[in-house]
Each structure stands twice: as structure tokens, then as C-alpha cells.
Specification:
Layout (H helix, E strand, L loop, with lengths): L4 H9 L2 H11 L8 H10 L2 H23 L4 H4 L2 H18 L9 H17 L3 H15 L4 H32 L14 E5 H20 L5 E5 L2 E3 L5 E3 L1 E4 L1 H22 L9 E7 L3 E8 L6 H4 L28 H11 L3 E7 L3 E9 L14 H6 L22 E2 L2 E2 L1
Parallel strand pairs: 2-6
Antiparallel strand pairs: 1-5, 3-4, 6-7, 7-9, 8-9, 10-11
Length: 414
């Protein structure tokens, strides 16, 4: 029997027992949770119940994406950075399945599980950069044809979404149950039941402005309008709130502000005054929408198609190990931000007006029972994606096509 390099990789990384476990867990589909379920679970579940759920759910999510890694082009799998990354995933899978038959009633097991989750989290800290480096290594050493490039783009969306979801599960458990967990915080793990939208907008804006000033010695101002204040049940006007993980919203907005500021400063470098970045906030029954509008000259339509393409950037690529935070250039900011928006069934879209500026619109679910995790599923349809360019239903939401250009309308991806 001849093994492909891929299978040889897995055989080197996992012993026979672990390989059988990987096959076993990958047969299960991930169980997507809503923000409402995260909230209820966080308020009422015991550590034993969380342990019992996660000791199966995280290996299921890990094994699904590990199986999918093996569908990648063989050349990419042999890149040094991708070999390192596969080793991390194999080690984390081995660490977690150790708890498969452990009793949740033994306090030692619960403490060890929590510590293992933190170890996994630390081990995977540089996953985004490491996979990015692997793709760069491939592009610098091999010719990459269009179909291979599309397969890589498709995979990266799924790989990074899987990572976002596992980090969410790990954070929820550790923030709620680690020995020094903050019991007085109003947050339920990562989720803030009263996430103040305007506060997150301002924090992201101010941090992006600080970076912009470091690079250009100036930064545009902000104007926020729309429904930043809403009436509460008593008829009193209060700041708009959302049940959401603030770090996710911050990540999205910080990226959008960085892009808008760079475009604005570079377009108006000879002007005495920079046009403001305008933010519109709207809240309806189902959606909270945040539009970030700039007058940064816009982007030609033939380039806008590539803006959600990993490793595409309109800025020069900075070092992979920078001494200070780069403002732009890696080509991961927008596609990752869109994944954070889509994770709970929101979205991020761009409308650009060449010669004038760009509107970026973030859509978030206003209702916690509608904000469901969107997770990749490894099955026969996902396998086909690596051999054809036909969109298939291979996410936990069967209406999601998996197309990188899909748009969410009326409850369906089109």
C-alpha cells in the first residue's frame, strides 16, 4: 500500500490509536451554538457540564478541520510552516482526547482539563501568521494555478472560522471556570450582555488613529451618526447595546478604521484638512448595522473582487516579524474581519466608489437566538470543493453556499 505524503504526515504526527480517534470524531458534525445558548449555558451550567460538552465538541471541531487540511495541495502540506502547524493541531488533539473517559466528578480532571485548554490556546496563538507564512512559502517556491489558489482561499476561510469557533469555546470555559476566574464581571465569558456599540467604535477608532499618527503624523477625525441612542423599556434614551463578544466587534472595526485612515491620508496628503470618517449606526428588529464611510479615493471595481482574497493587499507587504504593529500590508485583515462578522451569521460588505471613497458595512444579528455559529463541516461535499469551483452546502447552516462572494439576503446565502 502506497501512502501519499499527506497520509505519511498524519502517520508521523499521530500514533495508531490517535488516528483511529481522529477518524471517529471526524464522523460527527460540529454542534453550532447561538449567542442565547452561550449566555444560558454560561449563567446556569456547572463546570462538570461544560467539561462533558467540550471534551467531545472541541475534538470534533479539531478533527473536522484536520481532515480538511489533508485535502490541500500536497506541495502546500510540505511547506515548513504548514508542517509546524499540523504538528500543533495533532498535539492538541492528542492532549484533548486524553479526557474522553475521564470522570467529570473528579476535581483533578476538571483542573487539568482547564489547564489543557489554556495550553492549547497558547500553542495556537500564532496559527494565523504561521498558515499565512506557509502559503507565502508555497507561492515563492512553486507556480500556483488558479484552481489551486481558489482551493487555498476556500480552505483558509474554513480553517480560520474553525479557529475562531474553538477559541470562543475555550475562552468561554476558561473565563468562567479557571481558578482565578472573575466572578463579579457582568460578562458571560467573552460575551457582554450590554456591549455598548459606540464605546467599541470609539476604542477601535482611537487605537487605529494612534497607529495612523505613528506612520503619517496625522489622522482623520470621526463623525458618528444614526441610532447611537435608543429608548429602553421605560422610554428613557440610553446608549445602543448589543449582546455580543466585544473583542470580535473591535477586531472588525479596528481593521476597517485602519484601512479608511490610510486611504484618506494618502489621498489627501497635499490637503490642509483631512475629510472625516463617517460612521452610521442603525438598529432594526433583526440587525444592527454599522457603516464606515471614507473619502479615501475609492478602489477600482476590478480590484474590489480581490479585497477578500487572502494575501492580497493594496499596501506593500511588511515583515512577518515586525518591530512595531504595521498599519496594513498582510492581506489578511479584511477576509478575517468578514469571518468574525459571519461567525454569528452577520456579514461584512464593501461598496467602493472609484475616485471618491469606500463604504464598509458590518451587519450583526440583533436577536441572540438568531446569532448562530457558522461552522465548516467536513464531508463529501467539502471534498468536492478542492476539485471543482462549484459552491456546495458544507457549513452548519445548509443555506450557506461557501462561496467567497456569497451575500446574505433574507435568511439565505446567495
Amino acid at each position: 500500500m502506497r501512502f501519499t505524503p499527506t497520509v505519511r504526515n498524519l502517520n508521523k504526527l499521530l500514533d495508531l490509536k490517535s488516528l483511529k480517534m481522529l477518524d471517529h470524531y471526524s464522523q460527527f458534525n460540529p454542534s453550532p451554538l447561538t449567542i442565547k445558548q452561550f449566555m444560558e449555558f454560561g449563567r446556569t451550567a456547572t463546570e462538570e457540564e461544560s467539561f462533558t460538552f467540550l471534551r467531545k465538541e472541541i475534538p470534533v471541531r479539531l478533527s473536522n478541520i484536520m481532515k480538511e487540511i489533508n485535502l490541500l495541495p500536497g506541495n502546500l502540506l510540505q511547506m515548513p510552516s504548514v508542517l509546524i502547524l499540523q504538528d500543533w493541531y495533532a498535539q492538541s488533539f492528542r492532549d484533548l482526547v486524553e479526557f474522553e473517559s475521564s470522570s467529570p466528578n473528579d476535581r483533578v480532571n476538571l483542573v487539568q482539563f482547564c489547564q489543557t485548554l489554556k495550553t492549547v490556546q497558547t500553542r495556537h496563538t500564532n496559527v494565523v501568521q504561521t498558515m499565512a507564512q506557509g502559503v507565502l512559502e508555497l507561492k515563492e517556491s512553486h507556480m500556483v494555478d488558479h484552481q489551486t489558489d481558489m482551493a487555498i482561499q476556500y480552505f483558509l476561510d474554513r480553517f480560520y472560522m474553525s479557529r475562531i469557533s474553538m477559541r470562543m469555546l475555550i475562552h468561554q470555559h476558561t473565563l468562567l471556570f479557571e481558578p482565578n476566574a472573575d466572578k463579579d464581571t457582568p460578562r458571560i465569558g467573552m460575551i457582554d450582555p450590554h456591549c455598548k456599540v459606540k464605546s467599541v467604535i470609539m476604542e477601535a477608532f482611537q487605537n487605529a488613529a494612534f497607529l495612523c499618527e505613528e506612520y503619517y503624523d496625522c489622522a482623520p477625525d470621526i463623525e458618528i451618526k444614526g441610532q447611537t441612542l435608543v429608548k429602553n423599556a421605560k422610554g428613557k434614551k440610553v446608549g445602543l447595546e448589543l449582546v455580543y463578544p466585544p473583542p470580535h466587534l473591535y477586531h472588525i472595526l479596528f481593521e476597517l478604521f485602519k484601512n479608511s485612515m490610510r486611504a484618506t491620508v494618502e489621498t489627501h496628503s497635499k490637503s490642509h484638512e483631512l475629510p472625516e470618517i463617517e460612521v452610521l449606526v442603525a438598529k432594526g428588529e433583526h440587525d444592527v448595522s454599522i457603516r464606515v464611510s471614507d473619502q479615501g479615493g475609492g478602489i477600482p471595481r476590478h480590484i474590489t473582487d480581490h479585497l477578500f482574497h487572502y494575501l492580497f493587499s493594496t499596501a506593500p507587504r511588511p515583515s512577518m516579524t515586525p518591530t512595531k504593529a504595521p498599519l496594513a500590508g498582510y492581506g489578511y485583515g479584511l477576509p478575517l474581519s468578514r469571518l468574525y462578522a459571519r461567525y454569528f451569521h452577520g456579514d461584512l460588505i464593501l461598496n467602493s466608489y472609484d475616485g471618491y471613497g469606500t463604504d464598509a458595512v458590518v451587519y450583526l444579528k440583533a436577536l441572540t437566538h438568531e446569532a448562530t455559529e457558522l461552522l465548516p463541516v467536513f464531508n463529501k461535499t467539502s471534498t468536492k470543493q478542492y476539485k471543482s469551483s462549484i459552491p456546495t452546502a458544507d457549513w452548519t447552516d445548509p443555506t450557506f453556499s461557501g462561496s467567497s462572494r456569497g451575500t446574505y439576503r433574507g435568511g439565505h446565502w446567495t
